Amino acid sequence: MHKYFQLIWTAIKAKPRQFILAILVVFIFPLFIKLYTYFDHENKYDKVGLNTFDFTSKSFNKTKKLPDFIRNDKFRKVFKWINFQQIENYKFEFQHNFPKCPLCKYQIQSNPNAPKRDDSYDISLSFLMGNISGVVPYIQTLRSTGSKAQIVIFVDDETGETIYLKTGSFMKDCGVHIINIGNIPKNNNCRYFVLNYVKYAASLLFLQTHPFFDRVLVTDLSDVIFQGNPFLAVFPNNETFISSPEYENNGIQTSHWYEEETEIEILKMLTEIRKDVSFHSFRRKESYYNSGVFLTTYHLAVSHFFNVFDLLNDITHSQWDRLEELNEKLEETNVNIYAINTYLKKNNSITVLNDGLNNELFLLTGRQYEKGQQFPNFKYKGNYVLLFHLVHLDKEYCNSISQKCSPIFDFTPYYHC
What sections of the protein cross the membrane (predicted)? Predict the structure, then answer.
């Protein structure tokens, strides 16, 4: 051993510069790179990894591990097809420039007192299954408003392949993250509409494991269009939650709760679970919100998703059986309504806004508005609408979109009109 040290020392004395260089290359430089990568990734606004935009890759859930926030055994069984690992381990990379994204040509609308803010760290979250009509106009009009917000769409494997085959590099060019979450079973022996909860499960896990965002827009895809940038909506404070009640009277005492016996049964069930308000009191005083769109801050979005799962986790087996019998397509809507009214509106530190201070988010159902308006100049109560939800219910408005934002792909239906 002593002889080996003598040989090494002789080599060092003969060529000290070469020896030091070798030490730097073999040991010091790799250590520096590892430290730089670690601290670079500690910054929440830096890359988390490289997004390869592999739209065609199948997603396989080998471990079948479900998130801890899904505790109800019935829902755990229903959601076992979802590849939660794919969501948790998704290597997200922020994107701020989209030179190849084909934009529409129209006057971008805004309202007085709209804040000047960078929306690069805001995010739009959506879930898509099956029909992709309206998806391209959704993305194209959002990017045409100048929004640099991040866009994430959760899809089942089949829908992901359809998007790739029909739109090519469009999603990548416009900075859209398509996350394949699994292959929906053809027959899962459960009511079909339970799939509406997938957007809550996928969005919550994604936000938990990717805590990098400011504002969060959770939205339907096929029936939403943008006249302006919704992320520039006025927030009176950092505890703001914007949703759209159905009907002019702020959604209170709406026809849903008087005409649909199945929805009434669901609300009765929710008041049974919580026991903090009577059914009749809730039905008389609280608002009926559409669950298709809401805009809020990162931490309130996470809180709202947790509140929804707190309700779902407490559903008993007998209540589950009742839901199976009802098979109400608006079941998820009513759970969302209950969570907003019970947890958010009753918290004095949280501001729940109907449509936004300047009606930035617009929902067509039950509203009194001037007929015959066309894209992108639709106004409601004197304000330009930035996000228009349920466009298909106004055929004239919906058909006018193609005049300013003509199709760039040849498939039908392209618009959801």
Answer: 20-39
